[in-house]
Amino acid sequence: MNHIFNARLRDRTGLFTLRWDAGRISAIEAQADTATMAFTEGSIFDAAGKLVIPPLVEPHIHLDAALTAGEPNWNLSGTLFEGIERWAERKALVTPEDTKSRAHRTIRMLAAHGIQHVRTHVDVTEPGLGTLQAMLAVRDEARDLVDLQIVAFPQEGIESFANGRALMSEAVEMGVDVVGGIPHFENTRDQGVSSLHFLMDLAERHGRLVDVHCDETDDPHSRFLEVLAELTRVKGMGARVTASHTTAMGSYDNAYCYKLFRLLKQAGLSFISCPTESIHLQGRFDSYPKRRGLTRVPELDRAGLNVCFAQDSIVDPWYPLGNGNILRVLDAGLHICHMLGYEDLQRALDFVTDHSAQAMALGDGYGLAVGRPANLVLLSAENDYEVLRTQGHALLSVRHGKVILRRTVGEVTWPGAQPPEGTSRQG
Asked: Where in the chain is the domain with CATH 3.20.20.140?
C-alpha cells in the first residue's frame, strides 16, 4: 500500500488522498469529489469517507505491571495504597521472561486499537533493575508496532527507598527516555520536595524528559505540583515536563488554585489524567459527598495548558479492567469531567492524539504532514463526534508506510424485520 483515498481529515472539509514513499508522507491532495480507483491489493485503500488521523497515543501506562491482577492477591480495598502493597508482593515473582511476555501481549492490545506511540513507566525500586533491562529489550523488539518511551519510575520512592537515588541514576545510564518520581509517596514532605529537586537535576544533566506521578491522592494538602511547576519554570524545561494524575487538585480550594494556575501557565508543563483509574482509586476514604478523584481537566484545558488522557493500567493491582482501547478512556474522561458540550465533542480526539504527542515531545515525528513518518490510522467514522459516539474502531493502521493492522467490522442483520434507521451497521 502506498496511498489512501476518499479520506476525511480532522479540521478540514472535503475528501483527500494521502500518498507515501520510503516510509514518509509524500503528498496530501484535496479531491474534487469521491474518487473511484481500481483496487490493487497492497497498494491502495479506499477510506470511503471515513476519518484518517495520525496514530492514537498512550502517554501513561505501566507495561511492567500489566496483566498481573490477582497475582498473588487481589486489591480488595481498591485503594492506591493497597495496590502498591499488592505490587510489592507480585514483584517478588517477576522474571525478565514474565515481564517481556506480558508487555508484548499488552502492546498488541494497544496496537489493535490504533495506538503507535506509548510511554510506559517501569518500576526501578528493584535492586539489579532486571525489570528495566527486560523493558529496554521490549522497546527494541516492539518497534514494528509502537514507539516506546520508558520512564524510570521509583514506585516506592527516591528518598524513602534504600539506594533510591543510585537506582534512578543507574536507570538513566541504562538508557531510559524519561525521569519519573512520586513525591507524595515519600515518607515526609521534605523528602518529597528533595526527590523533585533530585529528579529534575538528573533529567536536566542528561537531557531527558520528565514525567512525575504528582499528588495522586485526595489529600488537599498534597501540593507537590507547585514545587514541580516552579522547578520547571526556573529551569525553562516546560516542553519536557509532565505532571501525571494531580488528582489532589480536585480537592484544592478555588482561592489556592487561582494562584496555582498563574504558576502553571508560566511553567508551561503538560498534564496527563487517567480518568478510569482515578475514579476507581480516588474517593475511597469518602462517604458522601464522594469526590470524583480527577484533576481539573476542563480548567487546565481552558487555561491553555496541555492536558491529555491515558489508560494507566490494564488488569493490574491498581485497576482490574482495561483492554487497550483508549477511546473507552476518552469517553469516560469526558463524562467524568463534564465535557460533553458541543465544542468539546467536536475536538474530542485532541485529548488522545495531538495533546498526548505534545506531552511526549514527539515533535516532527508525529502528525499528518508531507515529510513526516507515514504513520496513520483509519477510523470507522467520519469525525471526532461520531468516533466518540460509536466508540469507533481502527480499520487500518499504517506504520512507516507498512500496513500493520486491518479490521473488518461486522454487520448486524435483522431477519424478517426492517431495521431501525441508522442501525444496520456497527460503528
From this structure: 56-364
